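Case study: Phenylacetic acid catabolism protein.
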Amino acid sequence: MSILNNGSLIELAVTIADNKFILGDRLVEIGISGPNLEATLSSIAMAQAELGHARLMYKWAHELQGLNGSKVEIKEQTGKAFPSVAGTSHWVALIAGVYAVNVAVDLVMNAVIDAKHPELHAPFSKMFNEQEEHLLYSKSWCKQLLNDSGAVPKTFALEFEKVTLEALQWLKQVETDHLLLSEKIILENSNLVKEYKETIAKLTALEDVQHV
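Here is what the predicted structure looks like once written out:
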C-alpha cells in the first residue's frame, strides 16, 4: 500500500486535526474568561494557531485520500478528539488538555519526520514553532495550577490524568499500528508511550513545580 489511502495515516491526521479543532474552539470559548487579561489574550492567540493547525491537518487528510484539500470546510470535529478534550468546560481542564495533547502530537509529528518516508509531505514544518510556544505557555500554566491554593491542584491533577490516559492510549495505537510500521511511516521502537510518560513525569514531579 502506498501513502495514498493509507487508512491509519489518514486516521492519525484526522485525530490530530480533531483535537486541535476542539482546543481552538475551547480556547476562544473558555479562554475569554481566563483568570487574567494576559491569559485571555494568550488564549485567543493560541486559539487562532490551533484552528490553523487543524485546517492544515484536515487538508492533508483529504489529500491523502486523493481529494482536493483546498476545498475542505470544517464546521465540527469528526469524532476522533479525545473524550476529555471534547468535554472541556473550564479553564483548569483546558490548560491540562492543551499541554497533554500537544506533547502527544509533538511526539507523533517528530516520529513521522524521523522516519524520513520519501513520499510523505506532511505539513508539520508550518506547525512546529507555534506548537513549541503552546507547549511552553501551557506547561508554565500547568506548574502554576499544580502549585495553586485550595482545590485547584487536585482538580488539575484529576483533569490531567484523564487526558493523559487518553493520549497514552492513542500513542500506543500509533506506535504499534501495522500499516504505519509496514510502510515505515513510523519506525519500529519509536517509544512514543515511554517518551510521553517521561515528559509528563517531569511536569508532575514535585521538584519541577514552581510559580510562573
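For the exam, be able to explain this: The helical segments are 7-29, 37-64, 83-86, 91-115, 128-146, 152-175, 178-182, 192-204.
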